[in-house]
Specification:
- The protein has 84 residues and is mostly helical.
- It has helices at residues 2-10, 15-35, 51-73.
- The chain has one domain.
- The termini are far apart.
Length: 84
């Protein structure tokens, strides 16, 4: 069972199926977000469907880009043979 799962996520021949599965799951999540009622919201953006997912995606992408910028331009990341 676990070997089939590992092969599904690791093998290149299942790439198209994985992308379709990802898009279906994302569509279901967005659809579910439109169906949920929001009774108690503190801010106006809390009532916007998909706000949490969009904010989370943008925040995650920003963290990745900022950390890569700091690593490459900030001098934190060194060459592989730096200590040789």
């Amino acid at each position: 069972m676990i070997a089939k799962l590992v092969n599904f996520f690791g093998d290149a021949k299942y790439t198209r199926i994985r992308w379709r599965l990802l898009l279906i799951v994302l569509a279901l999540i967005v659809l579910a977000d439109f169906l949920i009622e929001r009774h108690h919201t503190e801010h106006f953006w809390d009532a916007v469907p998909g706000w949490g997912a969009a904010f989370g995606f943008v925040s995650c992408a920003a963290i990745i880009f900022v950390s890569k910028f700091i690593g490459h331009k900030g001098g934190i990341m060194k060459d592989e043979d730096y200590y040789d």
